[in-house]
Predict the structure.
Amino acid sequence: MSDNDKVNTGHHVESKELIKNARKPVGELGHQILDRMNKSHESMAQWGVSHFEVKEDSKILDIGCGGGRNIERFAEQISKDGRVVGIDYSEVSVEKSIDLNKKFIDDGIVNVLQGSVSEMPFYDETFDIATAFETIYFWPDFINDLKEVNRVLKKGGFIFICNEAVYREGEMDKYDDLVELLDMKIYSEDVLEESLKTAGFDEFESYINDENDWICIIARKN
Ligand SMILES: C[S@@+](CC[C@H](N)C(=O)[O-])C[C@H]1O[C@@H](n2cnc3c(N)ncnc32)[C@H](O)[C@@H]1O
């Protein structure tokens, strides 16, 4: 692999062709990156979900569900009165999430759909919790997309966002290659809170894991 075929992700040097699939997994490399993300995002996801409670009857939407590991995590915590729905605009992500969650789909507590966050096929006020792990970097119209999430949440419900990269003034050079390759946006805690406020959310809780640069934020629809 020549240097031109490689990208510095801020943590490792990787194949550009593989990493391109983080934005919208396609084909064989899409399958590969989803298998990897199901494992590599696990410690961040465990840290993130420790900040909120899932009830047995929670109706949960996981947006940009990727390989489906978070769908599986939530499905393990609900009863037959709860529901987990995954949505992702990548056909390969939907396939992977369905494969991983076959048992829960057969039990009738999980459903996975292909679609974009910008226009979701759900009625107003359907979900108690909407989660977004490692996906908002790619949302095309952030404020309007957050408004769409707000629409499908019940009053009293909340959005949970979890990212392994957070914007910090003067410390972003390490992500230059990745941001260019993936055309992604890395948000600061302040911009996230401001955007959520504009989209109609309030009661913010945000947490930063300094050791790893992880951020998660919870915002409520009242
Ligand atoms: C980096 S992966 C993260 C996957 C998974 N949430 C995780 O934490 O492992 C980003 C996922 O978001 C999906 N995605 C990106 N933009 C999206 C959009 N506008 N609507 C729906 N899904 C989107 C991609 O297809 C991809 O599966």
